[in-house]
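Practice problem: predict the structure.
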Amino acid sequence: MDERELNALKNKYDIVGNDPALNRALSVAVTVAPADDLTVLIFGESGSGKDVIPRIIHQNSPRRNGKYFAVNCGAIAEGTIDSELFGHEKGAFTGAVDTRKGYFEEADGGTLFLDEIGELPLSSQAKLLRVLQSGEFIRVGSSKVLKTDVRVIAATNRNLMHAVSVGKFRPDLYYRINTIQIELPSLRERKEDIPLLFRKFASDFTDKYSRNGIRLTEDATELLKSYRWPGNVRQLKSIAETVSMLETARMTPGSGRVEIDAATLLQYIPKDETTTLPVPSSKSSQDSISDEDREIMIKMILSLKQDIEDLKAKVYGTSAPAAHATPLLKPSPAPADYDEQPDEQDGESRSEEEASLNLLAAKDEQIRMALREYPTKKAAAEALGISERSLYRWIKTHKDQL
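Answer:
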């Protein structure tokens, strides 16, 4: 797509931003739309705007005149998901007073968007795989095979490969839906788009309710860009509307624009997120370790302990060295200048210090490997077994080493 076509697309779907990753996602959506037999899998954090991509694909495809349904798989109770997707017969279960068509039957000839597909139970995944492969499905409480012709577009904010590895998602279904990948960047990865989006949301709100407009000072704009926005675009819109509502309430409508500085804006930024520089602590370094970092270190200790046991088994041929075993690697003799043996306590201190340094180095390398292996930072954090907030703190501390 050239720039003119891209801008026309953004205007049509009310999309704001010029981030290259966002532009690529939009371009791929338009490119794959005509091939209406291809399934598309959209990756992106919750609130990043994944729902706009399926609408673009549907309305630029040969199915544009067919029906379009969006289903949030995570919002439907597990016991009713099959009924919602495939329909049910009268009397199939308590409350089934009539025969009902499911989304696959209703969307015949159109497009079905399955949001949060990673939340589907395994039994439903098997049925979904069948309808994707053959177009066949069976209503709950029936034995009659029905046919449908539906293009499926799926989305997830989870790492589906990890879900496959732990047995929570079928590998055959993963490879079936993962024909075309589209990844939407998180808002914190679109820093230059943040002020544009805030301005749009604030303007829409003030126009709708005939309020005074607001304008951000330079320091307020920098505050917006430095915040990590865990709720992405959805959270930014909420804050923009709240600021527009409360900060203009004290002014007479039509009297002018309200200027919002960083101090004012900070009142609306959640306090549980790091938005300012850390305050030096008077505690010892041991006391200043955060719970998240301690969690990482504990996991690393357990992992290193297992590695050590495995190494022992390879060196000695057992799980622990026998009393008479001769190690393959002998310690180097002490330098001639040292006539006295080192103090045992000092040796232990040095060993503990070296172990701590090795532990931290191993932890850092494991995090780097996860960042390279997984498509999103959220996925990397899940694989490491730590919070996403801890991972971003580590990245900020080690940015010069990445």
